Amino acid sequence: MSKIQDKFKELKSKNEKALISYIMTGFPNENTTLTIVRGLVRGGADIIELGFPFSDPIADGPVIQNASTVSLNKGAKIEKFFSLVKKIRKETDIPLVLMTYTNVLYTHGYSAFMSKAKSVGIDGLILPDMSIEESKEYLKSAKKNNLDTIFLVSPNTKNDRLKKIARASTGFLYMVAVFGTTGVQTKIHKYTIDAIKNAKKIVGKKIPIGIGFGVSTPADVKKYVSVGVDAVIVGSANLKIIENTAPSKLQRKIVNYTKTLKKSTRVN
Amino acid sequence: MKIGMPKDGRFGDFGGKYIPETLVPAVEELEENYQKIKSDKSFQNELDYYLKNYAGRPTPLYFAENLTKSVGGAKIYLKREDLLHGGAHKINNTLGQALLAKKMKKKRIIAETGAGQHGVATAMACSCLGLPSEVYMGYKDTVRQQQNVFRMDLLGCKVYPVKSGSQTLKDAINEAIRDWITNVDTTYYLLGSAVGPHPYPVMVRDFQSVIGKEIKKQMKNVPDTVIACVGGGSNAIGTFYPMIDDGVEMIGVEAAGKGLKTGMHSATLNAGKKGVLHGMMTYLLQDNDGQIKETHSISAGLDYPGVGPEHAFLKDAGNVKYKSATDNEVINAFLALTKTEGIIPALESAHAISHAIKIAKTRSKSDSIVVTLSGRGDKDIDIVKQYLRKNVKNSR
């Protein structure tokens, strides 16, 4: 069993859902990333999603786009990313998921990239532009390297396809909450709730389901937990805090924010 | 693999559908509807009607006698796509796709544009067919192609300047894709080149193939050589595809910008490597980490770090040769055609002209070269003026 799978099992026994916290590495700079990760861990995040920037992030809204640009302008390189993961791994055992775009892996060769990622301590991968049709080589390499492949599904994904994607996914299934790109939303749509309930019914016994895109408040988390998700993924909201907080106060702010979200994942 | 017939949306290794899951139903719906209209006589008749009466097809194949004489060598013919409504080949594709969107009962059309030619052609086709249009355009391109922005305004099309990334065509495509993801139910994405996820490369090729089909008819036989410029590659693939099995020498010309060695160019097939962008696997200009590089070309329409997947395939298969022309060579070709023939070509098309001049010299007088003159150059007059002014200054 992978570290991610173990985590979901552990949480189940505690009657909790997973809080998955996303940040963009190298934003606002490389050193601060480690500080932020410490804040997420202390705040009680269950899984950390580390973003590695791509020049053309088509699935991302303005907040993550901006973070990607900053990170790249400050010299983000995959080698530096791997060193950072190594450093994080020295401090914590928390499951780490890499989120980036297909070309970053493809250009280094799926197999070479994944064996390196695994060796530094990455547990799973999320590629928003990797469709199952194109995933044969990707899946083969991931399996060989014991990395979880976390695919995305959307509220408009049909049931037969949902089943197919769930079969290709390990760790958890990432459900996109909205028709749209990443970023904070002002409301939870009925179609999202319906999609979660449907996905739980169709594939929920086989794989945990996480909801992401637009999740930002404890109320969001409570609502999603109440309709049965196994994980909530918070991304752009973290980056907004990072954007708007003075460095000296950043870690504490992240700890507190993460704590309030985590509290809402506990099922009473 | 039979050339030109993609299997599972791929041309060999190239193409495919690397897209966010939200777009999958939209792309499947598009594919299904495209298959239907492909063999639907009434659709094709309707499209032919608009191509003839609205866009001005067929376009002439003009023997450029003066240019031929001044170069000395093979006969140079021009396929006059510049005479189409809107001033470029783009209308062949936008009429086809806008008609399809209408059949699919889509309420809203979005598009990206580089030089603005596809944006204008989209706005025109949409006005003609009574559809609202919105166009994404890199901020840098809105500045260097202000006339086209104003044309779109006049046509009632909303233009959104894109300020992310390099602020050119690739970023306009990113933004259009994001819009499509957000409004997937109501919106039709009218992609302007033979790029993107399957079925776009095939569909755009098919709509542009009218160029090559007409050339064959007009030449009575096939020419010895055909030449077209390649950015995304829609006018080129539309020229080549109908002749793919005819033993014609086919040459695509990319933008070498300030020179292939300077890194400031858009010659994807000449200098790129395989990768994934905008839903397709193709050749890309990218760094060692897979980050897409900023490109340069004097022509906004070729300023793109990727290329249509079928071109990538044809390059590797050896069916088509891909050459390049520098900004300087392009300006010279632009001036040569303007002076000898009184035809002002788009800077994009001037890439193809430049290469035609280069090789015509080396060929026999009985040889024929057809150049697809993909667009007219009115939009580029200011750029040429600035370039000449700067270079006259520099040479003093």
Architecture overview:
- The complex is a heterodimer of chains A (268) and B (396).
- Helices cover 51% and strands 13% of the residues of chain A.
- With 268 residues, chain A is of the alpha/beta class.
- Chain A has a nine-stranded parallel β-sheet.
- Chain A starts with a helix and ends in a 5-residue tail after the last helix.
- Chain B has 396 residues and is an alpha/beta fold.
- Helix content of chain B is 44%, strand content 18%.
- Chain B is built from 16 helices and 14 strands.
- In chain B, helix 14 (327-341) packs across helix 15.
- The A-B interface holds A 53-59, 61, 65, 69, 72, 77-78, 101-108, 128-131, 133-134, 151-154, 156-158, 161, 165, 176, 179-181 and B 8-9, 16-22, 24-25, 164-165, 170-171, 174, 177-178, 181-185, 273-279, 281, 284, 286, 288-292.
Give descriptors for this structure:
heterodimer, A: 268 residues, alpha/beta, TIM Barrel, nine-stranded parallel beta sheet, 12 helices, 9 strands, 13% strand, globular, B: 396 residues, six-stranded mixed beta sheet, four-stranded parallel beta sheet, 14 strands, 18% strand
**Helix count from the secondary structure assignment of chain A:** 12
Radius of gyration of chain A: 17 Å
Helix content of chain A: 40-55%
The CATH superfamily of chain A appears as Aldolase class I
Helix/strand order of chain A, N-terminal first: HEHEHHEHHEHEEHEHEHEHH
Mean pLDDT of chain A: 97
Main-sheet strand order of chain A equals 5-4-3-2-1-9-8-7-6
GO molecular function, one term (chain A): tryptophan synthase activity
Keywords (chain A): Amino-acid biosynthesis, Aromatic amino acid biosynthesis, Lyase, Tryptophan biosynthesis
Family (chain A): Belongs to the TrpA family.
Subunit structure (chain A): Tetramer of two alpha and two beta chains.
